[in-house]
Predict the 3D structure of the following.
Amino acid sequence: MLRSVKKLMFLSLILIFEHHLGFSQVKGVGFGFSQEQARNEALADVSSQISVQVQSTSGRTVTEITGKGFSEDYIRQVLTKTQLPILGATFTYKNVKNEFECLAVLNPSVTDLYKNEIIQIQNEAKKLSSSQDLNDLSRLLTLSENYSQYRVVLTHFSESADDFPISVSEIQKRYDEKAGNISSLNEFSAFIKRLFKENSYYIYAPEVSNSKEITPFAATLRQRMMASLPTTTSLDKATFLITGSYSILEDRIELNLKTVDKEQKNVKSASFRFLPSAYEGLRFKPESADLESLISQGLVLNNELRPELRTSIGKTNLLFYNQDKVELFVKMNKPGYLYIMGHVNNSGSRFSYLLPINGDGSKRDFVLFINADDANKWISLGEFEIEAPFGTEILQVFASSDDIVDRVPDFYINDSGYPVIGTNPDLVVTKTRGMIKKKKTQTNTTSEFSLTYTTMEKN
């Protein structure tokens, strides 16, 4: 849990905005103290809009998005956990109050660039498609994800391409047969050293495939990787990032990891099949999956009013330890209002609370207004220190184009000084959503977006 000078906890977010399909041309805006920083923010904005548009277009099947050979869960992770490659965008810069503003424009004419990249990927994949070599199979996993990312951008522009020459499941099957099983964490450490040979990694703990929670098993894997590889605890100093997720099967756990560079380009992919003896005594099932599912049900994605929330180390695979200090940022693409509601839903503690922004005396203190000058800029909500109770938490940020103060739930200050809404997060989520929908008008724009984090006590 987080506490700042204003007393609060911490995080998975949901914001509210109107459903509106994206246009063919995509414009992204970014701000920064250098042109490079502003450009990277603008590219991330373009990527986010494409992902939202592809997800929000109802009726699309997995095959329509990326062709045959990819599962629904695989595509969900591509759309929600990766930054899409942006090729051929044009950039315009201007100075705004001691900052650079970058406008990135991606036009439909760039589709030939994506098709050429896909052809190169397909040609390399065809040469490796019958290989049984572990390094070749690892390369095929990387190529398959690169293909799916380029194909998603083509889908946004209503274009298509030939299917990837081999299914991901077939690559994975061969890889698992060649790699064998991991029966202990020591075996995992040795395997990691052989596969990942670059320098200066920043390592994220893997998430569970159906949850954003970081379990004790995932935290242990991160610790093992940090002890086995040349790593840094600073994102700015890292050359490569390692991230991933795992699936829980009846008789094993399957872990997928990937390395990306600072431009988010996939460098290497690997997977590991753990036998029960490797995770004996470690909790590997998420506690928050039911609440996460409830929050994601009926989630409306929208490009009209697009809020985002991130921490000082990113938006996904978030794990913090007691006394860690974390800065929280919020951004919206247009002026609007928001308030943030958090949920603690662990085995030892269950309650929902409001995140103080300007204080905790009245409902107005919990509302943040983002004006036109601050649109598309990351606004710091302050630095927070991680404290007990530990576990996985979710922040819901409700945003609206109209003043939202009359939709802030009733609260009381508990003995620890937190503005508590209720002690049943499931009920709070349902009631708050109902209130938002009931008070939505034809002119009012609302929508949702979510983020999750886990806190633990350092041994």
Q: What stands out?
A: The two ends are 17 Å apart (CA to CA). DSSP finds ten helices and 22 strands in the chain.
